[in-house]
Specification:
Blueprint: H1 8-18, H2 33-43, H3 47-63, H4 69-85, H5 92-102, H6 116-134
Helix pairs in contact: 3-4, 3-5, 3-6, 4-5, 5-6
Length: about 140
């Protein structure tokens, strides 16, 4: 589903400007409700569809090693914050992708020998993208 006035590549460029590699949460320009409103209008789609579409594109970029875990995780976290603030329901695909990135944020069972991004996030993202492709 293509964006009308703004391509996903343009949106990704804007997100990369807001979330530069290595920036702490205090140094980045987080997403706001106004950003979501603008992007949904530009895409010509409801917010819920935009959330799923953004999450899928972030997952694809991560899966192809074109986008870093830190970048994707920060973006989905901020999108989720907008959802919470607006008391919105979580779209199914977005929520699955959010949880996949969330599982890479910490060591599971105290096991520091297994990197959580590689053990949990990457395989979950692969399964989600396979399911999306099969629809």
């Amino acid at each position: 589903m293509p964006f009308d006035d703004m391509t996903f590549d343009e949106l990704l460029t804007e997100l990369r400007d807001r979330y530069p590699d290595g920036a702490t949460w205090r140094e980045r320009l987080s997403l706001t409700n106004l950003d979501i409103l603008k992007w949904a209008a530009s895409a010509g789609m409801p917010r819920q569809d935009l959330y799923d579409r953004l999450a899928i594109e972030l997952a694809r970029g991560f899966n192809a090693s074109e986008l870093s875990f830190e970048f994707c995780d920060a973006v989905v976290n901020d999108i989720y914050s907008v959802m919470i603030f607006n008391d919105e329901q979580r779209p199914h695909i977005f929520w699955e992708i959010y949880l996949a990135f969330d599982s890479g944020e910490y060591y599971h069972d105290g096991n520091r020998d297994r990197h959580p991004v590689e053990v949990y996030t990457r395989p979950q993202i692969g399964r989600i993208l396979d399911a999306v492709a099969a629809r």
